[in-house]
Every structure is written in C-alpha cells, then in structure tokens.
Amino acid sequence: SAVISQKPSRDICQRGTSLTIQCQVDSQVTMMFWYRQQPGQSLTLIATANQGSEATYESGFVIDKFPISRPNLTFSTLTVSNMSPEDSSIYLCSAHWQDGNTIYFGEGSWLTVV
Amino acid sequence: GENVEQHPSTLSVQEGDSAVIKCTYSDSASNYFPWYKQELGKRPQLIIDIRSNVGEKKDQRIAVTLNKTAKHFSLHITETQPEDSAVYFCAASIGGGSYIPTFGRGTSLIVHP
Questions:
Q1: DSSP A19-44
Q2: Which of B7, B37, B43 to substitute to test the interface with A, most A CBs within 10 Å?
Q3: I need a surface site. Which of A45, A107, B39, B93 has the fewest CB within 10 A?
C-alpha cells in the first residue's frame, strides 16, 4: 500500500486558535479526502480536496471553518479554524488511486483543544 | 445517498471462537465493500474487500460474504486471537463513480485470552 504521511501527529491547542494539518502522499493520487473521527465514533467525511480548485464540502462542514488546500497531486492541507473543545478529534487524510477502488488513510492527527 | 448499518456495536468473544460482523446498505448501485480494522491509537487499515461480482472472499482467517439481493455483507473471523481486538468498520461505495465510501458505525471486537 502507499505511504500517506500526516503532521502533526498530535497537538494540544488553545481555544480560538487555528491549526493546519499537512498530508503528503508518496505518489500521485486521483483523489484526496479529509475525515474527522470523534472519540469512539465512526469516520465522517469533511471534504474532498480538489487539485487546483476549491474543496467539495460535505453537509455540516464549511470552508470558513475547515479551509483546505491541494496545490498538487501529492499534497493537501486542512486547517481547523477558531478551534473550540468540540473540535477535539482525530483528523485523517486519505487518498484514492485511479487503479482501484480502495482508499488508504494517513496516521491521523490527534487534536485536543483546551 | 448511501446508508450503511453495522451490527453489533460491541462483540466480545473467547480466544479461538469465531466472530461475525454484519452490515447492510441501501443503495443498490454500490458495488465495492471494504472492511477496515482500527487498533487503538492507529489509522484504519484495509483488511479485506469484496466486489459485487463475487459472493465470497477469503484471506486466511478472515472472510467476507456478500448478498446483493438482500443488500448485506458480513465479515467472518475464525480462530480469533487477542490481536484481533480492534474496531472494525464496514463501508460501501460505487466503483467507477466518486469512490467515496460510506462507513458503518464500527464494531468493537474484544477477544478474551
């Protein structure tokens, strides 16, 4: 399987601040996604990161809160803006390759907002 | 859109027993069904998948079955071991489309030594 690297892996953030998570893939991919996984919960899709254009957000997620960039086919960032304790979660980058249906996940970024 | 229901939410078995996790889906156009295992503090990892042109697939101690008519699929783990303890997620997606999977809520499997 491909290598998907995320950083930071873990952070403790102050309420009201913003944090940017980076995701790097070791080969060009068709699609990149960002998921949120709250403690003990399933995986919730935040948005699809589109190369060279605005991300496509799922219901309940907005660009002002979760701005996403994807400047090329192997890199994307997710910013969690104006954080509150409710944003404490694992944020996972994932990617899909054109030669298959499977998506693979990065290691995740564990954010705790205090 | 697609809706995936997963049961049970928690499954506790003794080492050596079998474990079965079941999922149902709503969109008959879904044709790709992966299963992910997530150990505590780690990323979800693909463990097995099945496409709609196949009714069953096995990989050592794990197997997945698919009933397209009833729109349900199941994960079977035989001879369970403590290292099988994890949260398992099923998913359904439409291959050839956006590939974005819809995930079930997860099953916490606990294997007691």
A1: EEEEEEESS--SEEEEEEE-TT---E
A2: B43
A3: B39
